[in-house]
Write a structure and sequence with these properties.
Helix 1 packs antiparallel against helix 3. The chain is elongated, with a radius of gyration of 23 Å. Helices cover about 55% and strands about 0% of the residues. The protein has about 70 residues and is an all-alpha fold. The protein has a domain of about 45 residues.
């Protein structure tokens, strides 16, 4: 008779994100997108030309809701 060991590989709780972690990550991303859109909205015509974005496109992007990521 031989001894054998059964090894089950379970994820530890710290490996699986909980709802709070996911929510905080989403809020952080939404805040970053909001700040980027605000910066885009406040760019001058020459800055927009440098990045090849029209004023109309910049205004459209800046007016999107924060949850529209």
């Amino acid at each position: 008779m031989t001894n054998s060991t059964l090894c089950l590989d379970f994820e530890t709780p710290r490996d699986t994100p909980n709802l709070l972690t996911v929510a905080l990550a989403w809020i952080k991303k939404a805040n970053a997108v909001y700040r980027q859109r605000l910066a885009l909205k406040n760019m001058s015509a020459s800055q927009l030309q440098d990045i090849a974005v029209s004023r109309q496109d910049a205004t459209r992007e800046a007016s999107r809701s924060f949850w529209d990521i």
